[in-house]
Design goal:
The chain is α+β, with helices and mostly antiparallel strands and about 140 residues long. It is about 35% helix and about 15% strand. The chain is built from 5 helices and 5 strands; from the N terminus they run ααββααβββα.
Length: about 140
């Protein structure tokens, strides 16, 4: 299951399906594996929520969800994508969605502070990264 997260996110329908990995098996058969990986903060499971969103969030009965790796470096390694592919315009566009979908929406850049509403990306300049790191530590 863990080894297939990139390949499942890289397909057209990005919902995670155990049947794509092992025929005849369902998510119920892998419940303990999902739980363990989530509790260890190795993966994040994102459930499908439709319609009006209320708190507390409740997953849909459809059972559709996506898995994301908590560590972008491991995700990159798992993908076996060559770093130079990001510099080839045609490859970059297809890869960007998979990688950006897996990571947080914060971009560290030489640009000034900014927020892109369309892509939901916060830009923080290099010189301010120390403040971001301090705030993240204080969240827990």
């Amino acid at each position: 299951m863990y080894k297939n997260i990139f390949s499942q996110l890289n397909k057209e329908n990005k919902n995670f399906k155990i049947s794509c990995i092992e025929k005849g098996k369902s998510n119920r058969d892998y419940f303990n594996a999902y739980e363990w990986l989530e509790l260890a903060h190795v993966i994040y499971r994102c459930h499908n929520i439709k319609g009006h969103v209320n708190l507390p969030l409740q997953e849909e009965s459809s059972g559709l969800f996506r898995l994301y790796l908590a560590d972008e470096g491991i995700f990159t390694y798992q993908s076996q994508v060559n770093q130079s592919d990001f510099f080839v315009k045609e490859r970059r566009n297809t890869l960007a969605g998979v990688f950006y979908g897996n990571c947080t929406a914060i971009k560290i850049s030489s640009n000034n502070f900014g927020y892109n509403k369309e892509n939901d990306i916060l830009t923080i300049p290099h010189y301010a990264v120390f403040a971001l790191a301090k705030n993240i530590r204080n969240i827990n």
